[in-house]
Design brief:
Order of helices and strands: HEHEEEEHHHHHEEHHHHHHHH
Number of helices: 15
CATH architecture of the largest domain: Orthogonal Bundle
Number of strands: 7
Number of domains: 3
Distance between the termini: 41 Å
Strand content: 5-15%
CATH superfamily of the largest domain: Hypothetical protein, domain 2
CATH topology of the largest domain: Endonuclease III, domain 1
Radius of gyration: 19 Å
Length: 309
């Protein structure tokens, strides 16, 4: 067990203000650093990195989140803030779910959404994470035409090779500088394939502030999207994923093949639609919480319905 192997291990308990389902949140495809492990008492934990800190997390009933970490890496109060922010514990899921259940009707106004009602039965505690924008950006550049296990392996390789120790055997995601100082061959060893030059381009533009990730917090969504798309390998879908999972822009609606299919079958009478059409329909229908709707529908379609849609 980690506690036996790490004498500096400490346990933090955080009282939850609302539901948090770690499985649906950490296995729904929005983040790529988390893995299931067996921890204290043979319980299932999730091991990963939050900011600069390696952690193991699990829920205790519906009321508490347990966080295992190395005490010499971070102060408890600091970690509490990091965890609260990362898991978006300030998001009022009850209000968000009620809004989504009263989805916009095609002809105007709002009404009950039976598809969302079914999806929410399986994703009540799913939360949109607030990931570090730089790591989120590179992760989604890597994600193009890759399955989730392959993305996880590439991100893990880059972190363990070029990152810094974060505790519990984990490593931080490498900085733009670290990636630029690495050889192109080193980056290619991560099995990122044709995306290696895109990663270098992102690192170069972020380090030079040609794309200022800090400034994006203060820009309108459309303008922030345009700036992200100045980076090679960043199209509308990748940009929207970064805005949603890195900047908590809950009004965006990223569209991949799963979401396009879902919107076509459930909301657009099986019409052949483009990603742009699906995105516009999702934003119109789900409004300020389109991002939550997207992730709930993605998890429901991919993991519950599986091949039925």
């Amino acid at each position: 067990m980690v506690s036996q192997a790490c004498p500096n291990a400490a346990l933090l308990e955080i009282e939850l203000p609302g539901p948090l389902d770690l499985q649906s949140t950490l296995e729904c495809g929005q983040a790529f650093r988390w893995k299931r492990v067996s921890g204290l008492g043979g319980q299932t934990w999730y091991k990963g990195v939050i900011g600069p800190v390696g952690v193991m997390v699990r829920t205790l009933g519906d009321s508490r989140l347990l966080v295992l970490y190395e005490a010499n890496h971070v102060q408890r109060d600091t970690l509490t803030g990091l965890v609260w922010h990362y898991f978006s514990l300030d998001d009022d899921l009850e209000t968000i779910h009620r809004y989504l259940l009263e989805g916009a009707r095609p002809g105007g106004g709002r009404g009950n959404d039976p598809i969302m009602e079914q999806a929410l039965r399986h994703t009540r505690g799913l939360r949109i994470l607030r990931q570090e924008p730089w790591e989120c950006l590179v992760s989604y550049i890597i994600s193009a035409n890759k399955n989730i296990p392959a993305i996880c392996n590439t991100v893990e390789y880059l972190s363990s090779t070029l990152g810094t120790p974060a505790g519990l055997g984990e490593y931080t995601f490498p900085s733009p500088q670290a990636l630029l100082e690495a050889s192109l061959e080193c980056i290619r060893q991560s099995k990122c394939g044709y995306r290696a030059p895109y990663i270098i381009d992102a690192a170069s533009k972020v380090r030079s502030n040609q794309v200022d990730l800090g400034a994006l917090w203060h820009l309108p969504t459309a303008e922030a999207r345009r700036h992200l798309m100045e980076i090679k390998g960043v199209g509308p879908k990748v940009a929207d994923c970064v805005l949603l999972f890195g900047y908590h822009r809950l009004d965006v609606f990223p569209v991949d093949v799963w979401i396009a299919r879902c919107m076509s079958v459930f909301y657009l009478d099986r019409a052949g639609i483009t990603p742009k059409t699906a995105r516009e329909e999702g934003c119109k229908r789900f409004g300020a919480y389109a991002g939550y709707a997207q992730q709930i529908l993605f998890h429901y379609t991919r993991n519950v319905l599986k091949g039925q849609v």
